[in-house]
Inverse folding.
């Protein structure tokens, strides 16, 4: 398969994730859509690594997976804290960054 | 060659369906399940690109561990269906439009790109490409500092999550024990 196919697929996944981030209001689903965007980036990185014939892109994708895990952990911690304080689980209601 | 193409299109359809499911499904629980399907399909694509170690890591770490974390949180906060008030506003209309604009732009960039190598199946690589051995050697030699930084970042994130989600006595209100 040509590398272009993989890149176009990754663009589609990225776009679906971006649409979700912009239109959904549940912060859990927003986090899931961020995962989609990061995974699209990973797919593009690995496709370029295959095109180039070097493994550095795969190491980069591995680091991106680590960053995604950190982001998930912090995001879920924030959501649990919101739930504990009985705040609405809705990104539009959480418009002020105050604790 | 046709076998690889069949696998690619099956995995691509699975990945796109999973991604659409994450965005469209109303119940967050089903969104998480759709993301698991998406990640598995993506792991198949990684295998096609000779990234065996990352495919295994994707299935074990992502579809396994991280998604279980999501399931726990969805179960904890109840996983209520979303529309508390009707979906609307300018962003619900302009968000997908804006995303479609990004998509068209990206596709134009890929297809009209001057990179000739994009229209090949990639460079010739040996059988050791993307194996745990090769990735591990890179991680412990050339990319040692990013590797260590990533491990510290994971530690900081874990501590931060504990600090964020812990029960605060002073701010919690008068009945902190009821939730326990």
């Amino acid at each position: 398969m040509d590398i272009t196919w993989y890149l176009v697929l990754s663009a589609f996944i990225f776009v679906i994730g971006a649409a979700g981030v912009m239109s959904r209001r549940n912060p859990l689903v927003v986090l899931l859509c961020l995962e989609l965007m990061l995974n699209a980036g990973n797919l593009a990185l690995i496709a370029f690594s295959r095109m180039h014939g070097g493994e550095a892109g795969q190491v980069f994708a591995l680091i991106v997976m680590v960053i995604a895990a950190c982001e998930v952990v912090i995001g879920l911690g924030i959501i649990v804290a919101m739930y504990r304080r009985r705040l609405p689980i809705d990104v539009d209601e959480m418009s002020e960054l105050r604790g | 060659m046709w076998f690889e193409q069949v696998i690619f299109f099956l995995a691509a359809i699975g990945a796109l369906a999973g991604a659409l499911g994450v965005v469209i499904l109303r119940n967050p629980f089903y969104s998480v399940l759709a993301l698991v399907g998406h990640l598995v399909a993506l792991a198949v694509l990684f295998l096609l690109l000779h990234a065996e170690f990352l495919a295994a890591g994707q299935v074990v770490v992502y579809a396994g561990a991280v998604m279980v974390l999501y399931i726990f949180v969805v179960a904890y906060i109840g996983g209520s269906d979303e529309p508390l008030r009707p979906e609307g506003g300018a962003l619900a209309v302009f968000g997908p439009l804006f995303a479609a604009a990004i998509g068209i732009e990206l596709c134009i960039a890929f297809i009209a790109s001057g990179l000739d190598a994009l229209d090949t199946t990639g460079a010739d690589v040996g059988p050791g490409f993307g194996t745990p051995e090769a990735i591990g050697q890179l991680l412990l030699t050339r990319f040692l500092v990013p590797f260590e930084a990533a491990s510290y970042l994971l530690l900081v994130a874990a501590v931060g999550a504990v600090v964020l989600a812990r029960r605060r006595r002073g701010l919690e209100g008068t009945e902190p024990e009821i939730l326990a």
Remarks:
- Residues 17 and 36 of chain A are 5 Å apart (CA to CA).
- Chain A touches chain B through 71 residues (CB under 8 Å).
